[in-house]
Amino acid sequence: MITLENVSRHYGSGPKAVAAVHDVSLTIAAGSFVTVVGASGSGKTSLLNLMGALHRPSTGRVLIEGVDVGLLSEDARSALRRTRIGFVFQFFNLLPTLTAAENVALPARLAGDSRAPTLRRAEQLLEQVGLAARSSHRPDELSGGEMQRVAIARALMMDPPILLADEPTGNLDSATGASILELLRGAVQAHRTVVLITHDASIARRGTRIVTMADGRLVRDELAASVPPSATAR
Ligand SMILES: Nc1ncnc2c1ncn2[C@@H]1O[C@H](COP(=O)(O)OP(=O)(O)OP(=O)(O)O)[C@@H](O)[C@H]1O
Ligand SMILES: [Mg+2]
To answer: To bridge 142 with a disulfide, which of 83, 129, 146, 175 should be the other Cys (CB 3.0-4.6 Å)?
Structure first.
C-alpha cells in the first residue's frame, strides 16, 4: 500500500542542512494499523508527510499504491492526496467560519461535487462519529474531542483507502483520546490502512505494528503484540 525505499528528506542546505528522515525503508501492507513513536524532532511528521505525498523525498522512492510519488507533477500529487489519503492533525485544522457539516463536506466541494449530496454524506459521516446533533455547530462551539471527530469525518469524506494521523490525540484528555483511537481502529476494520503518530506508548501499542524513529532513522520496527507494556513506557 505504502512503500518507502531508502528514503531521505533534507531541509535547508550547507551548515543549516537537516536530514529529517535518513535512509528509511518500510513497507506498509494494505489494511494494517501502524503507529509511529519517537522523541520530538526524530522525524515522525516528516515521515508522515512523505507517506502522504505532501513532500517529495530528497533521495529514494515513495510508492503509494504502486505509484512513484516522486515522478508525479504537483497537480497529480495533490489529486492523489485528495482522493486516496485522509489526513488528521493534532490541531484539527478546521475552518472556523464553516459548520461541522460544511467542514466535513469541504474536500468533496473542493473536488467540484455539488452541495446537497456532499452535505448529505457529511451528515452521515458525522453520525458515524457520534456527532449527528452537532452538524450545524461551528468549531468554536465544539469541544476538542468533538473537533477531532469532525476532522476524522472530513478525512473520510472522499472514502480514502489510507488514513494518516499526526498526534490526533495530543491535545485531548485520555478518555477523549481513547474514543478517537476507537474511531481509527474502526477505520482499520473498514479495511483502511492507518498510520498514527503518537507520543503515548499505551496508544502506540493499540496498533498492529510499532515503528520507532530516532534522529531521522527508523531504529525499531516490531509487532505490537510482541512488545510488553513496560518496554514502551516512559
Ligand atoms: N520545514 C523545515 N525546515 C527545516 N527543518 C525542518 C523542517 N521541518 C522539520 N525540520 C527538522 O526536521 C527534524 C524532524 O522534524 P519532525 O517535525 O519530522 O519531527 P517530529 O518527530 O515530528 O517531532 P515532534 O514530535 O516534535 O512533532 C527536526 O530536527 C526539525 O527541526
Ligand atoms: Mg511532529
So the answer is: 146
